[in-house]
Design goal:
By secondary structure, the chain is α/β, with parallel strands linked by helices. Helix content is 34%, strand content 25%. Helix 1 packs parallel to helix 2, helix 5 runs parallel beside helix 7 and helix 6 packs across helix 7.
């Protein structure tokens, strides 16, 4: 673990990551499965790039390859063939231990079913991963409170999942994912089990994380109306990209915005 941190983790890559605008690059990504004598081409040559600060919706009909793509992007699965880099790091060929550590420390995940522990409070569900990474309980609790505050649950730290609504549970899941300040947040149909009103609340949280904090988000969804929250749509069909449309620009870093000059041209007298 320590050797991995020295090579890959944020503290050592900070300067590089700030300069690198393109965070994800994939080239000719393929994923084939064999079912008996039949080869299923879940992904059949997918290529695109994602810039830091984008909010991406990956869309497509059932069986189009969108979940397979997200699993590969999130380092849960490996491609059969193709290139995949995050901040110029070839993550496909990482040794398994380093790959797992990178996934744990650098990436965040939000699943359909919340994946919360019922016996734990909201804050405990968020900081448990931090404890697993070796941080102290005090530090982990501070991080959890900050993350829950970002998703509007700062007043429900001690609530267990059974005392939270569906939307609140999903927001706890989002807080858990962002607590470690991941470079990329992956969301696999985060509103699949929610009604429209609650879905809007969760999507507003994701949009705020993207716009206010510059969080890069890659979300799988099948709902067309969800696209009003994102900056770009990538649509798949039969394992291929059939549409890649930009809906709005990237969130600009306020620190890098040029300052208005205070110089005033003096009129001739």
């Amino acid at each position: 673990m320590e050797g991995f941190k020295t090579k890959y983790v944020k503290d050592d890559l900070g300067a590089i990551m700030k300069q690198e605008k393109t965070i994800i690059k994939i080239r000719n990504l393929q994923r084939y499965y064999k079912t008996g004598q039949v080869t299923v081409k879940a992904l059949n040559g997918v290529s695109f790039e994602i810039k830091k600060g984008e909010f991406i919706a990956i869309m497509g009909a059932s069986g189009s390859g969108k979940t397979t793509l997200l699993r590969i992007l999130g380092l849960i699965d490996k491609p059969t063939k193709g290139e995949y880099t995050i901040n110029n790091l070839n993550v496909v060929d990482l040794p398994e231990e380093e790959r797992n550590c990178y996934r744990l420390t650098q990436l965040g995940y939000v699943f359909q079913d919340y994946a919360l522990i019922n016996e734990m409070s909201a804050s405990e569900n968020v900081y448990i991963l931090s404890l697993m990474e070796g941080r102290s309980k005090k530090e982990s609790l501070i991080t959890a409170k900050e993350a829950l505050g970002k998703v509007g649950l700062g007043d429900k730290l001690d609530r267990i999942p059974d005392h939270l609504s569906g939307g609140e549970k999903q927001r706890v899941a989002v807080a858990r994912a962002i607590a470690k300040k991941p470079k990329i947040l992956f969301a696999d149909e985060p509103c699949a089990n929610l009604d429209t009103r609650t879905s809007e609340q969760v999507l507003e949280v994701l949009k705020t994380l993207n716009k206010k904090f510059g969080q890069t988000i890659v979300m799988v969804t099948h709902e067309p109306w969800h696209t009003k929250y994102v900056s770009r749509v990538i649509e798949l069909n039969d394992g291929l990209v059939i549409k890649d449309k930009k809906l709005r620009g990237l969130i600009k870093d306020k620190k890098s915005a040029p300052k208005k000059s205070s110089f005033r041209k003096r009129s001739k007298t």
